[in-house]
Amino acid sequence: MKVDTFFKNFELLTDAPNAIVKLREIILQLSVCGKLSQQADDECASILVSEAQKKLAKLIDEKKYRNFEKVLPVKLDEQPYKIPQNWKWVRIGEIALVRGGKRLPQGASFAIIPTPYIYIQVTNMKNGTIVNDGLKYIDEDVYQAIKNYIIEKEDLYISIAGTIGQVGEVPDFYHQMNLTENAARIIFKELNKKYFLTALNSNIVQSQFKEKTNQQAQPKLALKRIADAIIPLPPLAEQKRIVEKCDRLLSTCDEIEKRQQQRQESIVRMNESAIAQLLSSQNPDEFRQHWQRICNNFDLLYSIPETIPKLRQAILQLAVQGKLVRQNISDECGSDTPPRLLINDKTLRVSFPNLVDKRFFNLYNNSLIARKYYAGQGTGTSNSMKNITREQIRNLPVPLPPLAEQKRIVEKCDRLMSLCDTLEAKLKQGRDSSEKLMEVAAKQVLTA
């Protein structure tokens, strides 16, 4: 499948679970293998590497940074896939300097009150950018000891402990802040920053970071390992074209994801409203009106799996409210004999008189009415370990219809629950089919 064909049919693939996440991954993969934009007669990326190294060497000569990490050229058998002729496989250490942060001196502590000197202790990423989090203030004497370990807005930030391998841009707010020992800065020249960030966040590079992370009690990614990782480098003009195409496609992903989320939220709200109206019906005519509205919009209301549990609960509610089957005045009255019998301190066995169908009681026991009763009666120090007593179960109020109606309710409920199972299976099958279609399409476009 051609790339253009794949993206023209973009939205046909979005019904698969996590479809947008997978589409974003595909976009990044296409970005770093030369298949996202039209190739042009650009100068070879080898020239770009030479220019980048000259600029970095000048910074080293000016004593701004230590010398380059020593890295070997990428061998042919190390290249994971074929790239366009004017691209080049390079190690990060060939085109960038990787410099770490500095831990606080032994015995030093953070300042109690705000100071002009800020230390980035813990940071998080969001949408490829460091978020304002984990900032600590330090005193001037501590600052003097670590002032050479800073990060600048022109750099890229990489986490080397905790969320290892996370790479992001540095906002202006963080310019020249002191950097923690759990992170590093990637200093580069002559590269398109957004392409470099895209390449560093692609699967081909992230998988290398994971492989190169030590497996000690507190895993860490060494700076030398970052410099050794390889990336595919296109010419500078091609980097710009890739970024522009990537931005457009990712923006499309955002729009599709937003529409999907809005549609799902709308369906859930409509379903909840329809169910609430049905359950609150005051007479048979009102009930039939609300039920008919659900029937008329059934394909929409139950087009996503998330609404099926609400339907199941509604069926149980209707069953115990006497609204699921027609009433028959010739039926004998229900029994007022309570359920009974004790097994152990965590389990109760409940037996019933002849006028009670245990299946009906089971339906009621699983309804929201009964669950709320138990939640209110339960005692204990933890929500997950609350207990109810035999006496509390005996006192459970049960709206008991005649035995004949109990049986009709159970039979009707079984049929409706079976329909729920069928509907759920159908929706799952549809999503599974969409997922397989996505996998096939992704494989075709990535191997074309």
UniProtKB/TrEMBL annotation:
Keyword Zinc attributed: no
Domain Type I restriction modification DNA specificity residues, every copy: 84-262, 382-429
Keywords, comma-separated and alphabetical: DNA-binding, Endonuclease, Hydrolase, Nuclease, Restriction system
Pfam family, one: Methylase_S
Superkingdom of source: Bacteria
Keyword Glycoprotein: no
Family classification: Belongs to the type-I restriction system S methylase family.
Name used for this protein in its record: Restriction endonuclease subunit S
Source species of the chain: Anabaena subtropica FACHB-260
